[in-house]
Design brief:
- The chain has about 300 residues and is α/β, with parallel strands linked by helices.
- It folds into 2 domains: about 5-160, Ribonuclease Z/Hydroxyacylglutathione hydrolase-like (Metallo-beta-lactamase, Chain A); about 225-305, Arc Repressor Mutant, subunit A.
- The chain has helices at about 35-45, 60-65, 65-70, 85-90, 95-100, 165-175, 180-190, 210-230, 240-250, 255-275, 300-305, and strands at about 5-10, 15-20, 25, 50-55, 75-80, 120-125, 130, 135-140, 150-155, 155-160, 200, 280-285, 285-290.
- The strands form 3 sheets. Strands 1-2-3-4-5-6 form a 6-stranded mixed sheet. It has a 5-stranded mixed sheet with strand order 7-8-9-10-11, with no helix packed on it. It has a two-stranded antiparallel sheet with strand order 12-13.
- Strand 8 (about 135-140) and strand 9 (about 150-155) form a beta hairpin.
- Helix 1 (about 35-45) packs across helix 3 (about 65-70), helix 7 packs antiparallel against helix 8 and helix 8 (about 210-230) packs across helix 10.
- It is globular.
- The two termini are about 40 Å apart.
- Bound molecules: zinc ion (ZN).
- Zinc ion (ZN) binds near residues 59, 62, 145 and 162.
Length: about 300
């Protein structure tokens, strides 16, 4: 526990715990039934029934435990951000969007990309205060890693979801997953300006100040922006450019899951760069070609993003 009623179950994915008047509230539920069984043991050990699960976002490793937990406690209520909620109810949407909207092949239907479906009973507000099972929470909008990712604050402890990665994990990932680099950086800047008593990221250690880890995440995203801009001095398709970026970052892609995750993240960086007019594209011989915008006038506002 971090304080009297707020704590977390540490793991590959940290699962937040808040003790309410009538039982426990979990923030996310981990990857799968195996994780969920451990959570159940943990709740049994403190004699707390589950009364709610608050989802931060709809990635399989954050809601894969719902199915088992809701089987044990059918009366528990599930809260999720809008849009994320749709994917939690129809988890096949994750392999579908990673496969560019087409029918996902068997290799994209593993437990890391496709969790069992779960009901969602309540939508979280995009931002602001909400009472859940008698406990006041503040919802922070932290989009970028996913479309409507939410940070969950209780008793001045911020569950920051995957808005930033712990430093060790950041180094391992090299090219962090995101759907919009621009929003990712804006969310990180919002966190950087926050002063909560404690921070629990989805992946990484609890800290009393997240500033160092958050700054490192921002630095990495900006470095990747510059790398992409630099390699797009040679005009290329998304997939060619991704292969070249992976070489630079010493990433070796060996399966379909990693490929589609990296490809989506790469597109997330490209749309971020496009928004700042740092890249442009055109269509040549049926190819969608991207290149650095050499005509960009670097004014103050633009420079800030770097
Ligand atoms: Zn995630």
């Amino acid at each position: 526990m971090i304080n009297e009623r707020v704590g977390y179950f540490p793991g590959h994915v940290n699962v937040g715990l808040v003790i309410g008047e009538k039982g426990a509230i979990l923030i996310d539920s981990g990857l799968d039934t195996q994780t969920a069984k451990k959570l159940k043991k943990g709740l049994d050990a403190i004699a707390q029934p589950l009364c709610a699960i608050i989802q931060t976002h709809a990635h399989a490793d954050h809601f894969g435990g719902n199915s088992y937990l809701l089987g044990c406690w059918p009366e528990a209520q599930v809260y999720a951000p809008p849009l994320e909620e749709a994917i939690i109810r129809y988890p096949i949407l994750e392999p579908i969007y990673l496969n560019m909207g087409a029918e996902p092949p068997a290799d994209l239907r593993n437990k890391f990309l496709l969790a069992p479906s779960s009901r969602v009973d309540h939508l979280l507000p995009p931002e602001g205060d909400i009472e859940i099972a008698g406990v006041p929470f503040t919802i922070l909008s932290l989009p970028g890693h996913s479309w409507q990712q939410a940070g969950i604050v209780c008793d001045d402890i911020c569950f920051a979801a995957d808005s930033y990665l712990g430093e060790e994990i950041l180094e391992k990932h090299k090219l962090p997953f995101l759907v919009d680099a621009h929003e990712t950086i804006a969310s990180l800047e919002k966190l950087l300006a926050s002063r909560y008593k404690g921070y629990v990221p989805g992946h990484g250690p609890f800290t009393t100040s997240s500033q160092e880890a958050v700054s490192k995440n921002i630095d990495l995203h900006r470095k990747i922006y510059r790398e992409i801009e630099d390699l797009l001095r040679e005009e290329s398709t998304l997939e060619e450019a991704l292969a070249r970026l992976c070489e630079r970052l010493h990433i070796t892609i060996e399966n379909a899951s990693s490929f589609v995750l990296f490809r989506t993240a790469f597109m997330g960086y490209l749309v971020g760069l496009l928004r700042q007019e740092r890249v442009v594209y055109r269509f040549v011989q049926n190819r969608w070609l991207w290149r650095k915008n050499e005509n960009l006038v670097q004014d103050g506002a633009e420079g800030e993003e770097r």
